[in-house]
What does this fold into?
Amino acid sequence: MNRTDRLYALVEELRAVSPRPRSARWLADRFEVSSRTIERDISALLQAGVPVWAEPGRTGGYCLDRSRTLPPVNLTPGEAVAMAVALRGMEGTPFRATAAAALRKLVAAMGEDDAAAAHDMAGRVHLLGPVDAPAPVPGPRGAADALSTGRVLRIEYGDREGATTTRDIEPLGYIGKTGHWYLLAWCRMRDALRAFRTDRIVSVHVTAEVPEPRELRREDLDIPYGVVHQLSLS
It folds into this structure.
């Protein structure tokens, strides 16, 4: 068990038995480390603001204030990115900094793989123009989940004249601007990168095909108007 996982497991162990204490020796045996390592871990938790204290005496040990902690948070990468997008709507308000701090805490509570996936997904979401929240993503749910599937999507897409075509696409990212969101994807019908306005995606079918990795390059986002801002989870 690495240190990050052990710190998380320590909190959950102390929460499970709260308000009873666990001794450093008991915790050391439980996590197969030394008592000194447990003491360093408890110090790290205290510095991070976790409400842990030491109860003295022969039957004492470390205790956790259960009422001031959250149960395990199991955000998906898509949920974390959605929260980051929602935070854009708080730009210019007195609550932006505290909301961003709350998001960082939630991301820190995610598993390593999910957190890495969330950061990767956020890196493929871009906002065009002022750094505020674009309009919500309309259309079928599959359009919002396009990046998390890791599969080729078959979509029904309507153009501005209302004509509908069926296309197989490889999702690469999103661009949001005031009024609309666009799904950036490699269109196999056009054999080129295309931006699909999400409110024109009529339906989405997730195929079984996993495409070869394709990079969304910075020059692909060289849009002739406005400034492109990459989404961040911080």
Q: What stands out?
A: Helices lie at 3-17, 24-31, 35-47, 77-87, 96-108, 112-122, 141-144, 146-149. The first strand starts at residue 52 and ends at 55. The chain has eight helices and nine strands. Residues 23 and 121 are 41 Å apart (CA to CA).
